[in-house]
Structures are given as C-alpha cells and as structure tokens.
Amino acid sequence: MPRLPLLNYLDDAGAKAPARAILLRNFALLDAKAGELVSRCEVLVQGHTIAEVRRDSIPAGDAEVIDLGGRTLMPGLIDLHSHILGECFPVAPKMLPSLMAASAANVMRGMLGRGFTTIRDAGGADYGHKRAVELGLFPGPRLFVSGRAISQTGGHGDSRSQADTREPPMCCAQFPGIGRIADGVPEVRKAVRDELRMGADQIKVMAGGGVGSITDPVEYLQYSMEELQAVVDEAQRAGKYVMAHAITAESVQRCVEAGVRTIEHGNLIDERTARMMAQAGRYLVPTLTIYDVIKRSGRSLGFSEASMQKVDAVWEGNARSLELAAAAGVPMGFGTDVARCPEFQSQEFLLRGAVLPAADVIRSATTVGAEILRLPGKLGTIAPGAFADLIAVDGNPLEDLGLLSGQGENISLIVANGVLMKDKVRGPTDSNRDV
Ligand code: ZN
Ligand code: ZN
After folding, report:
1. Counting ligands in written order, which one lies closest to the CA of residue 216?
2. How far apart are CA 92 and CA 81, in angstroms?
3. How many Å lie between the centroid of ligand 2 and the Cα of residue 100?
4. In what order do the strands lie in the sheet with 77-82?
C-alpha cells in the first residue's frame, strides 16, 4: 500500500495530477450534444484535463497508450440528485461522523464504478467530502455539495416523528444528516448564510411535502413565499443558486415565482407548470428511480407505512412528468435520489429510456448536467480544455441504454479528473485503482 503524502488539508492544492499523459486510441467517440458517434478520433489526457481531441492520430510521446478496442468513449456521467450519505439517513442520529464518512466513501466508490464522475449531492454531503475527493483521500466523483437542506418545522427535512418533542438544535434533524430546520425569514437567511460559510456549492430547500418524510403530506406547500424568496436572495447574492424539492404543480409554480433555478422531482407537474418552467428558463431534475424502488421494495428498505401510502400517486407521475417537460421544452437533468439504495442508481437510464430517446437521456447526464452545474465545456463533454472525466462502454449506449445500467459491468475504463480509476480494457495494472 503506497504511503499517502503528508498534506496540508487547508491549502488550496488539489490531488497531484498524474505525471504521465494518457493517449486513448481506437474507439468511437460519443458526441453527446449531437447524439451521434464519431469514428477515428484520438484523445490525449494531460494532468486533470483533456489536452487534445483529433480526428487523426496523435503522436504518443511519453504518454501511456490505451487501445480501447473499438469501444465507445463518452463523457463521465453526471447525477444531479443523489445523497452520498443516504445509507446513514435512517440511523444518522446514532452514528459517529467518522462512520458516516466511511459509509459515504463506500457509496462514492460505487457511484464512480457505475461511471458517475460527477455528483450533485442534494443534502447531506459537505465541503469535507468534496475536499477528500479533491485531495485523493477518497476515490469518488467530483462533488457539488449542498450541505444540509433547509426545511421548515414539520417539512420534508424534519425527520422527527409526531411523538418527538425535542426542539432544534437538539432534535434529530440537526445531526449531520440531510436537513436543518429554519422558520421565518431571519432564520432562513441565517441558515443559507451558514451553509454558504461551510462551503455549499448550491443551496437546497425543501419546498413541499415528500414521500420519505413521516409527518407531511405530499401536497403540503412548505415555506411562505417570503421565506422562499429570502432563500433565493441569500444564495444569489453569494453567486450561488437554489435547488428545491418540489413534487406537486403548485409547489413547483411557487418555486419558479420565487426564483428557484432547478426543480427536483416534479412528478406531479401539469402542462401549465411545464410551460411556466420553460418560459422562465428553469431546469427539471426528475428522479424516477427512487419512487420506483420505494414502490417496489420500500418496505424491505425500511420506508415507513406513511411513505408507502404516499408513494403510489407520485410514482404514477414518473413517466408523465417527463412527457410534459419534454413537450414544453423544459431542459431536464439526470437525477436518481438513491439515498438508501445506491445500487439502483443506474436504473434511471432504463426508466427514462422507456419514455425518451436515448440521446436525450444521455444529454441529461452529460451536457445538460454541465449547464446546470454552470460548467458547460468543462463537464459532460470530450473537448480540449474539459476536465478529463471519461468512460469507455462495451457497445453503443445510443442504441442500448442498458449498457449504462447495473453496477458498471459494461464500463471497461473510467478516467476521473485525469486519473485512471478502472481499466478492464487491459486487465488489472498497477496504475489502476479498480473501483
Ligand atoms: Zn426530495
Ligand atoms: Zn433527495
């Protein structure tokens, strides 16, 4: 086992870039934007970025050359709604932070192995997790963290039961879990400022009822307009944006009016709401998988009776929300929300592929994801200057999205931030961390 270098955890340096360049040859390049394969390209990775993409051969020089044997090379996948601490949520108040970090590391390794080189965490992960990946301490996807999601008392981020009379900050919702409670304009402003201080990349707010929470009906419109507007104002003045949990049409409309940039879930939107989102230039991040998993196996995963009663109506909106958003021209990002069940993450490709063309599904997890993260040209694309996040697939995902499902069985090579993380093309090697 190699010794880790002594690191100053507070300096700005990230993990050291690999000294040796990587030259990828003999593949079909998946151009996500155009939705087509381009043959006879070569790609040179230098440090953390893509140095060159040429429809010709690139001189190898000192680079490590990898022949991909005709596979498809595509940008690393982006999951815009996931929770790396999800396995801890039901028991977080009883867990030491160290054990939670270890669990998150394990979940991240699995996500990377499924080809996800970028994750936007929708509540739970903090700057420490992000930094641990940047420093190379945890092998994992590039993280965009929200810290704790902001919820009203009795809202979707309040995990207390009816019988729990403890007040914040002593109640369970204040533990390093998914949410924190803030009520009233001064408190929500302070909560946003606090999450920004602690390094949130974007602010997550719970703007309506949810399935996983115990005491709130799905139709519950959470937070007053003044509170929602205050959350957006605080985030925007810091140069950040707000993502909101919102399932029903009315809660989505309130979020759009308040200036929320990305709507999470949106299962029960209607035509009018979809049009309103498109006109206002907002994004939808559907998460079909979690509702499908709860509907099919929620009981065995430990979801409460209350959740099981709420899931049917939301699950029924899964496909329809995609159709309505697509018809209205709402750009859609790829989300999964697999909190307690990360192994189902890539099922999202199949659920979406049953409703939308494969090229659109792939764009949601690449180019649209990059737009939402405000890094177009750096993420979700294979182009000079982009981050070197790449995967090689054994076949053409434009013809078979199933190649991206499962646990990464059909993904033979993964490069994350310029580092070779999996190489089944040549078999195990020393340089390969084999996620
Ligand atoms: Zn949610
Ligand atoms: Zn979530």
Report:
1. 1
2. 20
3. 17
4. 77-82, 116-121, 142-144
The number of distinct structural domains making up the chain is 2
Angle between helices 185-197 and 225-237 (to 10 degrees): 30
Distance 123 CA to ligand 2 centre (A): 7
Cα of 300 vs centre of ligand 2, distance in Å, is 19
pLDDT at res. 174: 45
Domain identity same for 47 and 177? no
Question: Does 266 lie in the same domain as 236?
Answer: yes
Classify residue 248: in a domain, yes or no: yes
Please check whether residues 315 and 191 belong to one and the same domain: yes
Separation of CA 290 and ligand 2 centre (Å)? 9
> Is the domain of 60 the same as that of 113?
no
Distance 53 CA to ligand 2 centre (A): 36
Q: Is the pLDDT of residue 303 over 90?
A: no
State residue 165's pLDDT score: 82
pTM above 0.85, yes or no: yes
Q: Per-residue pLDDT for 105 more than 90? A: yes
Determine the length of the chain: 435
Q: Indicate if 264 and 332 belong to the same structural domain.
A: yes
- Find the mean pLDDT for residues 367-372: 98
Distance from the alpha carbon of residue 81 to the mean position of ligand 2, in angstroms? 6
Is there a cis peptide before residue 186, judged by omega within 30 degrees of 0? no
State whether 107 and 139 are in the same domain: yes
**Residue 276 shares a structural domain with residue 347:** yes
Ligand number nearest CA of 82 is 2
Residue range of the domain that includes 40: 14-75+380-423
Residues 235 and 137 in one domain: yes
C-alpha 247 – ligand 1 centre gap (Å): 8
Residue 32 belongs to a domain with what CATH number? 2.30.40.10
Is 5 a domain residue?
no
Sheet containing 149-151: which strands, arranged edge to edge?
A: 179-181, 149-151, 203-206, 242-248, 262-268, 283-285
Average pLDDT, integer, range 126-136: 95
What is the number of H-type helices and E-type strands within the chain? 12, 17
Digit-coded pLDDT (tens) for 12-41: 556 667 779 999 999 999 999 999 999 999
**Residue 203 binned pLDDT confidence (cut-offs 50, 70, 90):** very high
**At 390, which amino acid appears?**
L
What is the rounded distance in angstroms from the CA atom of residue 358 to the CA atom of residue 353?
A: 6
